[in-house]
Design a protein that fits this description.
The protein is of the alpha/beta class and about 650 residues long. The protein has four domains: about 25-260, EAL domain (TIM Barrel, Alpha-Beta Barrel), CATH 3.20.20; about 275-415, Response regulator (Rossmann fold, 3-Layer(aba) Sandwich); about 415-535, 2-Layer Sandwich (Beta-Lactamase); about 545-650. Helices cover about 55% and strands about 15% of the residues. The longest helix is centred in the last third of the chain and has 69 residues, at about 515-585. It starts with 12 loop residues before the first helix and ends in a 5-residue tail after the last helix.
Length: about 650
């Protein structure tokens, strides 16, 4: 019942070009679990997202049509692969070295140049090819050319995995699928959401199960929203599953093994997932909406009144998107039946119709509708209206969570004083240390007292040294992470880890507290710790430079004294010999007594003048010696003061 243009977009070419230039695309990761044991994570899938200036996040369904029209799909694909491979080191450090799936347009495999660049990106990265899984979508309109099959073979040859995503509600040609060198078949939400409502969905799914067994591939279900779906899929032999039931897509900074091992806890942590019921008897448009909205909402789809009322009764969706004209029933009847059943504040209704007459709009209002959308409708308008209604529900949930957080913060407030006392004691301990190991020892003691594990790196401008709380030094992978995150600002949190940076000192907390209140307190006191350590380490570096200057001056003084003494000896010997030679030559010159006396006076005056000049050189040496002694005395007094403070500290109790 729809003539809606699902490809219409609010973005023009210049806007999309700017997104590429500013690199506003980013990745989220969602885990895939084994249906034999849903606590076991078996893989991750990377989803490309686009963040607008107003912080709105768009999924590919909203920006990909413009990217395709502009011919930027190869560039977008290369950007996707580059970001995944760049994230691999952090994923490995976090213990999340699972196979990562990425979706690539099947036409890329017939583009030899683009495919070669993609392969080069993978091979030149630290990510093993075997840890990359490439997902392809084969629609009814796709015909497998020899170029595509060849390109898929090239991906398999580097060791990457291949998966087929089934996103259509119609059965694909099994003979076409059997040509593909795939390892896995993935069944999408468009089929999964109707397994309890339509026999055709079950029949198609069972057909893919049989195909998977014949081809000896694994088979996974995507977009699982509830335990009923997961149970049915497990009973029918599905290997793996993925969806909001097991965990929402997260940016890499939010990932952690705790988050991956804690399925379906999004609501408990304030991440409320809105449920949306779509009642639309145009199959193509219904599937399009389901595919677009499933990434943000828990979506249910049906095409008739009876199933709609049954779904509402069992799942209580917050938003209903009702087509007025249905083959079986109508949207008004559904709305009246739901509203007559009790509280209307728990849900909102949006009506769709190709007839926007005044009569229809008034009926929609009387039936409790909050919006009336006239067909044809750009998808962006549907998404916008849904987003506004969803924001209302999320605000209410957010307000409730805020009250809980405030109570928790009040409960924790009495503990904060101990943190400040610990910082004072830490400052005292590092002030007594004169090198990197002593600072690291003080930090590790502070962290152990709070149940935290960490490592740290010192940089003096030329060299660096590292320490780990559980071993002598950091591993090469950890040192690489320090280097990667050095420019990420004072505090950079990823997963359950926190990198803390300053110019000369950085440390990494490996097990941040899980609670938001405790995590906030930790961020506060580590900011103070890094400033203390940075200031102390700068003082240590300055002291080392001062010591080096003293040693150089002392060495220079000794060399100058030795050189002058040696010169004096040589000069005296030369003068004595010169005087002796002059005296012995008087008789040869036939000089009288007065001439001999005058010549002796000339020689003596020359010697005296030279000695006067050398007195000024001695003065310079004396001044260098005095400066060296003064610097040495200053350093000695500083070291003595430190030793005195350390002795006093042994006799004092801790302040807190």
């Amino acid at each position: 019942m729809s003539n809606i243009d699902g490809k219409e977009s609010f973005m023009d070419d210049s806007v999309v070009t700017n997104f590429f230039e500013e690199n506003d695309f980013f990745l989220t990761y969602q885990k895939k679990v084994s249906l034999k044991d849903t606590s076991q994570t078996v893989g991750l899938e990377a989803f490309l997202r686009l963040r607008l200036e107003d912080k709105t996040v768009l999924s590919p369904g909203e920006f990909l049509p413009v990217v395709e029209r502009m011919g930027f799909v190869p560039q977008l694909t290369e950007l996707l692969i580059t970001q995944v491979t760049n994230d691999w080191d952090l994923l490995t450090l976090m213990g999340l070295d699972y196979t990562v799936a990425v979706n690539i347009d099947i036409n890329i495999f017939s583009n030899k140049e683009s495919l070669s660049r993609i392969i080069a990106i993978v091979e030149n990265s630290n990510m093993p090819s075997s840890k990359l899984s490439v997902d392809i979508v084969l629609g009814q309109e796709n015909q497998l050319s020899s170029e595509v099959v060849s390109g898929l073979g090239r991906i398999r040859m580097i060791g990457a995995n291949l998966s087929l995503d089934v996103v259509s509600g119609e059965q694909l040609e099994m003979s076409e699928i059997e040509k593909l060198p795939i390892d896995e078949v993935k069944i999408g939400r468009t089929l999964i959401c109707n397994i309890f409502e339509t026999h055709s969905s079950k029949s198609i799914i069972k057909g893919y199960l049989d195909l998977s067994r014949r081809m000896a591939t694994t088979i996974s279900a995507i977009g699982i929203e509830n335990q009923g779906e997961a149970k049915w899929l497990a009973e029918y032999g599905f290997d793996n599953a993925q969806g909001f039931l097991f965990g929402q897509p997260l940016e890499i900074a939010q990932l952690s093994d705790q988050a991956l091992d804690s399925p379906a806890e999004s609501q408990a942590h304030g991440q409320f997932r809105i449920k949306v019921l779509i009642v639309e008897d145009d199959p193509e448009y219904g599937l399009l909406l389901t595919d677009l909205l499933s990434e943000r909402y828990e979506v249910f789809l049906t095409d008739n009144e009876n199933d709609a009322l049954d779904i509402f009764s069992h799942n209580r969706p917050e938003i209903l998107l009702l087509d007025i004209n249905l083959a079986q029933g109508d949207g008004y009847s559904i709305a009246h039946a739901i509203n007559d059943g009790g509280d209307t504040s728990s849900h909102s209704i949006i009506f769709l119709s190709g007839n926007d007459s005044q009569e229809n709009q008034l009926k929609a209002y009387e039936a409790g509708g909050v919006a009336f959308l006239s067909k044809p409708i750009p998808l962006v308008d549907v998404v916008t209206r849904l987003s506004r209604v969803a924001t209302h529900h999320e605000s209410r949930m957010g307000a409730h969570q805020k009250i809980q957080d405030t109570e928790a913060m009040a409960f924790q407030s009495m503990r904060e004083a101990s943190h400040y006392g610990g910082i004072v004691q830490f400052m005292k301990e590092i002030s007594l240390g004169g090198n990197e190991p002593s600072i690291a020892k003080a930090l590790f003691k502070y962290m152990r007292d709070r149940g935290l594990s960490c490592s740290m790196v010192f940089r003096d401008g030329t060299n660096s040294c590292s320490f780990d709380i559980s071993q002598d030094a950091c591993s090469p992978a950890e040192l690489n992470v320090f280097e990667l995150l050095q420019s990420k600002g004072r505090l950079y949190e990823f997963g359950h880890r926190l990198m803390v940076n300053d110019n000369h000192v950085s440390f990494l907390i490996k097990n941040m507290p899980e609670g938001e209140v405790e995590k906030g307190q930790a961020r506060d006191y580590v900011a103070a710790l890094i400033e203390c350590m940075e200031a102390r380490y700068i003082a240590i570096l300055q002291n080392r430079i001062l010591s080096a200057v003293v040693n150089d001056l002392r060495s220079l003084t000794d060399e100058a004294i030795a050189s002058i003494e040696h010169g004096n000896k040589n000069k005296q010997s030369m003068v004595d010999k010169f005087s002796e030679d002059i005296s012995l030559s008087f008789h040869l010159l036939d000089l009288n007594d007065e001439q001999e006396k005058h010549l002796n006076n000339i020689v003596q005056e020359a010697v005296n003048t030279k000695e006067d000049d050398e007195i000024s050189t001695d003065d310079i040496v004396d001044r260098i010696t005095a400066a060296t002694e003064l610097l040495s005395l200053t350093l000695s007094e500083f070291e003595h003061a430190q030793e005195h403070e350390e002795d006093d500290a042994d006799d004092e109790d801790e302040l807190f």
